TrEMBL record:
It comes from Chitinophaga rupis. InterPro entries: Beta-barrel_TonB_sf (IPR036942), Carb-bd-like_fold (IPR013784), OMP_b-brl_3 (IPR041700), Plug_dom (IPR012910), Plug_dom_sf (IPR037066). This is Outer membrane receptor proteins, mostly Fe transport. One of its GO terms (cellular component) is cell outer membrane. Its main location: membrane. The lineage of its organism: Bacteria, Pseudomonadati, Bacteroidota, Chitinophagia, Chitinophagales.
C-alpha cells in the first residue's frame, strides 16, 4: 500500500510541476527565466534573487516517529499553482533550495493523515528557515502560519540594525571597502580610510569577527553587505564608542555550479579583476573567489605652522607630493558540509597579499626662506594575511532555538624597506652641504585568535534567552631599524635613537546573558556582558617589560524597550555601556623622531575610555517607503585624545592623553522612498554637538562644535536595462576626533610617515567642511542579464580633501591633504550558472531516481 502511495504522490507532483513557475537562477537560461527577464526589462523592475532555503521534518503527532515519502508542495498564493515539490526522506526530512523572494503556501499530504497548510515568506531576513518538526495527525488538520515581510533593496532599515546591500552599489564597483563605506548612510570615511559613525570610531568586523585587515585591503566586489549596529546589545563585543560595522563577504549558496568573473580598468593606471565560483549539491557546498587590484595613486599636502615661544615667532612651510603603486590580491576558499537539515560545519580560508612602492618628496621652508631642505623617501612595503575560520551550527526542532560555535585564527606579517634622503638647500633652492641618507627596515607579525560559542533558547511563547562565551588572544611583535650613512666611507651605522622593537599581548575573556520578550505590542530586552582584559608588553632591546595588567572586570549592561503601534509604527528606547581600550602604539613611552619636525610619543598612563550611550528611535513603514529617526546622547569618560605642543622654533610634539570631559548628542534621520516603481532614494542627515575638555600641564584646552552631515543616494531604473546611481554627501566643519583603532599591523613607527602627516587633535583642531558626489551607470545585457558593464566616476567635482585648522596659545597650524579621488572606472561582469542535480550525486535506487525525476520536472536546466 505504501509503495502505491509513493508512486501516486510522485506522479501527481511531477504532473503539477510541469505547470509550475520554476525558480530560475539569474545566471541560467530557461523560457520562463527569459520571459521574466523581458518583463523586468520592460517595466524596469529588478528580477528578485532566488536563494531562499526552507527545510523541516515531518513526524507523527502521537508517536513522534518520522513520516517518510509524504508529498510536500510549495504553492503560489495567487492561484495555488505549484512552485516546487518533493517527497520527504525516509527520516521525514524535506529541503527546498533556490526559492525566490515572496510569500507561499506549503501543502503537506500523506494518506491517512490530515493535510497541513503553512504560509511561508522568503525575504532577505529569512532566506534560511527551519520550520521545525511538523506534526501530522490522523484524520485532522493542522494549520500554521509563518509571516515575514520585506523586500531586498539597496538599503534595509531596522531600529537595531541597518543593512547596506553592496551588489546594488554601482559607484563602488572595482574599488575597495573604503569606497563601499563612503556610500553607506550614517558612515563617514576620511581620505586615510579612518571610519566614523556619528563622529566617533566604531568597531569593524569581517564576517562577524575581528580582523587585522584594513579597509583598503578588502575588494568591494568581494563584499555582500555591510551591517551597521549603532547601539549593540550584550551579545556583541563591548569595544567601540559608536557601535559595530560588520562587513559580510560574499558566499554563494545556490545549488549546482554558478559564479561570476569581472574585469575593470580605471584612469591613472588602475586595474582590477577576479571571479568567484560556487558548487553545491546535496550535503556539500564549495565556494572560492579571487580578486586582484592594481592601482597607481597620488597625494599632495601642505602644512603652514607658526610657533610662539618666549616672544619669538618662527614659521614652517612644508609641501609634499607622493606617489604609490599598490597591488592587492584577495583569495578565499571554503566548504560547508550539511550533516543534516539542522547541523552544518563550515570551514574557510582567506589569503590576502599586498605589495607597495611608495615615493614621497617633502620640501620644508623655515622662517619664510631663511633655510630650506628637501627630503625624498623611497620605500617598499609588503604584507601577507591568513585567516582560517571553523564554524559549527545546530538548529533545534523548536523555532529560534540554536547552538553555534566558531574558532577564528588570523596570522599576518609585514615588512618595509626604504631610504630617507634629506638634502639642505640654499634660499634659492640649490643643494648645499652634504645630504643625509638614512635606511630603514621593519618587520612585524600578528597572531589573532578568537573562539566563541552562543546558545539561543525560546522561553515560553514570547521569551528568548541568549548565552555566550568568547575568548580573544592577540600577540604582536615589531622590529624597526634605522641606519645612517657615513658621508665619507658610505658605510651604514645603526641609529639607536630612531630604531625600536616591541612586543605586546592582549587577552579578553567575555561572557554574556541576554533575555528578551514581548507582552502584546510591547517588547523588552535586557542583557549583561562581562569582559576581563589582560595586557602585557615589552621592549626587548631595552630589557624593559611591562607587567601584565589585569584591569578590573568590566560590566557592560544593555537595555532595549520597544512599543509597536498601528499602521506599522514603532518606538524604541535603548541604552548600552561600551569601552575603547588604548592600543600599544598609544601606550609605548618612546618618542618617534622619524620626522624630526613632527614627533610623536605614547603615554603609558593612558586609561580605557568608557561610553554610556542612550538612544530613542521612531520607525514608520509604508508600502513603498520607510523612515527612521533617532535622538542619541553619548557621555565618554577618559576619552582617548591627543594634544600637540611646540618644541623649539619649528618642531611639534603630539602625545596621547585622556580627556577630562566629552559629551556628544544629536539627531539622525534616515528615509527611503520608491517613486513610480523605478526610482529609489535614500537620504540620511545627522545633526550633532560635541563638547571636549583636556588638561595638559595645568593648561586646559576646550573645544565644542555643532555640526552636521548629509548623504543622498539615488538609483533609477532606465529603459533598455540601464541603471543610474548618484551618491552625494556633505560634511560641515567639525571637531577633529582622533582615530583610536589599532590598525592592520603596521610595520613599526614611522613606517610610512610623510613630514606633514600627523595625528589630528580633538581639543585643538577643527576640520573644514567638504562635499563630494559619485555617479555610476550600469547596462545589463545578454540572455537573463548575465552580463553587465558599469561606468563609475568618483568625486565628480574633485572636492574631496582634508583640511585641519589648529589654534593654541603656543602655536597655530593649517594642514591640508589631498589624495587622488576623481577616478573613472569601467567594469565588466559576467555571471554564469547551471543547476545540475547529478553533481556529487550518490548512487540511488531505481525507485528513488524515478521519484526525483518526477518531482523535479522542468526544474533541471
Amino acid at each position: 500500500m505504501k509503495q502505491w502511495y509513493v508512486l501516486l504522490a510522485a506522479a501527481l507532483l511531477g504532473h503539477a510541476s510541469l505547470h509550475a513557475q520554476i525558480p530560475i537562477m539569474p545566471a541560467t537560461g530557461g523560457k520562463q527565466g527569459a520571459a521574466a527577464g523581458a518583463r523586468g526589462g520592460a517595466n524596469g523592475q529588478r528580477q528578485m534573487p532566488q536563494i531562499g532555503h526552507v527545510y523541516g521534518k515531518l513526524v507523527d503527532a502521537d508517536t513522534k516517529k518520522p513520516i517518510g515519502y509524504a508529498a510536500v508542495a510549495l504553492l503560489k498564493l495567487r492561484d495555488s499553482s505549484v512552485v516546487t515539490g518533493m517527497l520527504t526522506k525516509e527520516n521525514g526530512e524535506f529541503n527546498f533550495e533556490n526559492l525566490p523572494f515572496g510569500t507561499f503556501n506549503m501543502r503537506i499530504t500523506f494518506m491517512g493523515y490530515g493535510s497541513i497548510y503553512k504560509k511561508v515568506a522568503i525575504s532577505p531576513q529569512t532566506m534560511d528557515q527551519d520550520l521545525g518538526n511538523l506534526k501530522m495527525r490522523p484524520d485532522s488538520k493542522l494549520l500554521g502560519t509563518v509571516e515575514v515581510t520585506g523586500q531586498k533593496s539597496a538599503f534595509t532599515m531596522g531600529i537595531d540594525k541597518k543593512v547596506f546591500n553592496v551588489d546594488r552599489n554601482l559607484v563602488s564597483v572595482g574599488g575597495t571597502a573604503q569606497d563601499v563605506l563612503k556610500n553607506v548612510p550614517a558612515v563617514n570615511v576620511d581620505i586615510d580610510g579612518n571610519v566614523t559613525v556619528r563622529n566617533a570610531s566604531p568597531t569593524i568586523f569581517v564576517d562577524g569577527k575581528p580582523s587585522t585587515l584594513t579597509l583598503d585591503q578588502i575588494p568591494a566586489d568581494a563584499i555582500e553587505s555591510v551591517e551597521l549596529i549603532t547601539n549593540p546589545s550584550a551579545r556583541y563585543d563591548a569595544e567601540g564608542m559608536s557601535g559595530i560595522l560588520n562587513i559580510v563577504l560574499k558566499k554563494n549558496r545556490r545549488a549546482g555550479i554558478n559564479g561570476m568573473v569581472t574585469a575593470g580598468i580605471g584612469t591613472g593606471d588602475k586595474y582590477n579583476g577576479g571571479g568567484n565560483i560556487n558548487v553545491r549539491q546535496g550535503k556539500v557546498n564549495v565556494f572560492a573567489n579571487y580578486m586582484v587590484n592594481a592601482n597607481r595613486n597620488w597625494g599632495d599636502g601642505t602644512t603652514d605652522r607658526t610657533n610662539y615661544l618666549n616672544g619669538d615667532t618662527s614659521f614652517l612651510h612644508q609641501q609634499s607630493n607622493s606617489r604609490s603603486t599598490p597591488t592587492f590580491q584577495f583569495g578565499r576558499v571554503g566548504l560547508d558540509y550539511y550533516l543534516d537539515n539542522r547541523n552544518t560545519i563550515s570551514v574557510s580560508q582567506n589569503i590576502v597579499d599586498g605589495n607597495f612602492k611608495n615615493y614621497e618628496d617633502l620640501r620644508s621652508t623655515f622662517n619664510k626662506g631663511d633655510s630650506l631642505s628637501n627630503r625624498i623617501n623611497n620605500n617598499k612595503f609588503g604584507f601577507r594575511n591568513y585567516t582560517t575560520a571553523l564554524d559549527f551550527k545546530h538548529t533545534f526542532a523548536e523555532p529560534n532555538r540554536e547552538l553555534s560555535a566558531s574558532v577564528n585564527y588570523n596570522y599576518s606579517t609585514n615588512n618595509r624597506n626604504g631610504d630617507f634622503n634629506t638634502q639642505p638647500l640654499t634660499p634659492d633652492g640649490l643643494p648645499t652641504g652634504q645630504a643625509a641618507l638614512q635606511n630603514n627596515h621593519s618587520d612585524g607579525k600578528t597572531t589573532f585568535i578568537t573562539a566563541q560559542t552562543d546558545y539561543t533558547d525560546p522561553i515560553g511563547k514570547n521569551g528568548k534567552l541568549e548565552l555566550g562565551l568568547k575568548t580573544t588572544l592577540r600577540n604582536y611583535s615589531s622590529i624597526y631599524n634605522v641606519y645612517d650613512q657615513d658621508s665619507i666611507t658610505k658605510g651604514y651605522t645603526f641609529n639607536d635613537l630612531l630604531s625600536n622593537d616591541y612586543k605586546y599581548k592582549e587577552q579578553i575573556y567575555a561572557g554574556y546573558v541576554n533575555y528578551s520578550g514581548t507582552v502584546g505590542n510591547f517588547g523588552y530586552q535586557g542583557g549583561l556582558r562581562v569582559e576581563q582584559y589582560v595586557y602585557s608588553g615589552e621592549i626587548p632591546s631595552e630589557g624593559m617589560k611591562f607587567k601584565p595588567t589585569k584591569a578590573t572586570p568590566g560590566f557592560f549592561p544593555s537595555i532595549y524597550l520597544s512599543q509597536k503601534f498601528k499602521n506599522d509604527q514603532e518606538l524604541q528606547l535603548n541604552y548600552s555601556r561600551r569601552v575603547t581600550r588604548p592600543n600599544f602604539f598609544q601606550l609605548i613611552p618612546y618618542r618617534d623622531y622619524t620626522d624630526p619636525l613632527n614627533q610623536r610619543e605614547g603615554n603609558p598612563n593612558l586609561k580605557p575610555e568608557y561610553t554610556n550611550s542612550l538612544e530613542f528611535s521612531y520607525a514608520k513603514n509604508w508600502k513603498n517607503s520607510n523612515f527612521l529617526g533617532s535622538i542619541y546622547y553619548r557621555n565618554t569618560n577618559n576619552l582617548l585624545s591627543t594634544i600637540s605642543v611646540p618644541l623649539g622654533k619649528d618642531t611639534l610634539l603630539t602625545t596621547f592623553v585622556n580627556a577630562d570631559k566629552n559629551n556628544s548628542y544629536g539627531a539622525e534621520l534616515t528615509g527611503k522612498k520608491t517613486f513610480f516603481g523605478i526610482w529609489d532614494v535614500t537620504a540620511n542627515v545627522n545633526l550633532y554637538r560635541t563638547e571636549i575638555s583636556v588638561t595638559q600641564d595645568k593648561e586646559v584646552f576646550k573645544n565644542s562644535n555643532f555640526s552636521w552631515n548629509a548623504k543622498l543616494n539615488s538609483e533609477t531604473k532606465l529603459p533598455a536595462n540601464f541603471t543610474l546611481q548618484i551618491s552625494g554627501n556633505y560634511q560641515a566643519p567639525t571637531i577633529a576626533l582622533p582615530n583610536n583603532s589599532a590598525g592592520g599591523g603596521g610595520g613599526g613607527r614611522g613606517g610610512g610617515g610623510g613630514g606633514f602627516m600627523m595625528v589630528p587633535t580633538s581639543a585643538q583642531g577643527t576640520i573644514k567642511g567638504f562635499s563630494s558626489m559619485d555617479i555610476g551607470l550600469k547596462k545589463d545585457f545578454l540572455k537573463n542579464k548575465t552580463a553587465s558593464l558599469t561606468l563609475a566616476l568618483s568625486d565628480v567635482f574633485n572636492t574631496r580633501q582634508y583640511e585641519l585648522n589648529q589654534v593654541a596659545p603656543a602655536f597655530s597650524q593649517d594642514y591640508i591633504r589631498k589624495r587622488e579621488s576623481r577616478i573613472l572606472r569601467l567594469t565588466f561582469a559576467y555571471r554564469f550558472g547551471k543547476f545540475d542535480a547529478q553533481i556529487f550525486k550518490r548512487k540511488n535506487t531505481k525507485a528513488e531516481r524515478e521519484n526525483m525525476q518526477n518531482i523535479q520536472g522542468e526544474q533541471s536546466f
